[in-house]
Amino acid sequence: MPQITPAQQPPVRCALPHLKRIAATPDEQAIAQDELNQYVAEQAEEIAPTTDPLTSRDRRIIGEIIEVDPESVRTIWLEGGITVWVQLVDGGRLAFERDWFATRVQEVKATLPETPRERNDRLSEELETACHKYRLTHGEVDWLSFSTTLYLNRQRLGFLGCNLQGQWYSRRSQLGGSRTAVDIDAAIAQLGIRQSIAA
Closest by alpha carbon to 162, among 104, 106, 196, 116? Predict the structure, then answer.
């Protein structure tokens, strides 16, 4: 086998062509290391984003189960389909049996009250579904009282909302009396709107 002398060796190509070879002085070396670390972090973020999948409600549920402050819960994952791991902000980890943890989650969910935002999200979904069903549009939602104006072909029909007792209500004029209903469909029907039936 012929031997290759150093003069005959092909040049080594860098896998990261945009990074420059830097002289070995300590300051330049530190700068280069920082640039490399930043590049690696950017690439890792593109491959596996570090956005947290846990909502504030998830944290409240987990905090209730393991009896810690919800803000101390960093993340949660399932290992081997058997063990639920909870990672805490301070670096601690707790392991739980999957079936026990799932049972506790259902129990806590049933007793945990909705936050105002969760309530508004749920009501907003109901409103959008009903508007689509009756071919209506609505104005800007007042999120504090959860109320809005309903329109049919740009003509104002009246006002619709949901009170703090969870009852939908409607009224024809802004100063008129509200009439509560059992659900959003009944509240819309009180404004004289019926669902069109396809022929």
Answer: 116
151 φ, ψ to 5°?
A: -130, 145
> Which backbone phi and psi does 104 adopt, to 5 degrees?
-65, -40
Is pLDDT larger for residue 149 or for residue 8? 149
How much is the mean pLDDT over the chain?
Answer: 82
Q: Are 63 and 73 in contact (CB under 8 A)?
A: yes
Angle at 116 between CA 110 and CA 119, to 5 degrees: 60
Using alpha carbons, select from 191, 140, 138 the residue that is nearest to residue 169: 191
H-type alpha helices, the chain: 26-47, 56-66, 98-111, 116-134, 184-189
Tell me the sheet residues that pair with 75.
87
pLDDT digits (tens, 9 = 90+) for 138-157: 999 999 999 999 999 999 99
User: What per-residue confidence (pLDDT) applies to 124?
Assistant: 95
Cα distances from 197 to residues 3, 65, 84, 190, in angstroms, run 87, 48, 49, 18
Which residue in this structure is represented by tokens 């939908």? 168
- The pTM (predicted TM-score) of the whole model is 0.52
Residues 181/170, Cβ–Cβ less than 8 Å: yes
Distance CA 109, CA 97 (A): 18
> Which pair of structure tokens corresponds to residue 126?
């109901």
Structure token digits, residue 156: 């104002």
Q: Which residue has the higher pLDDT, 41 or 104?
A: 104
Contact 73, 59 (CB under 8 A): yes
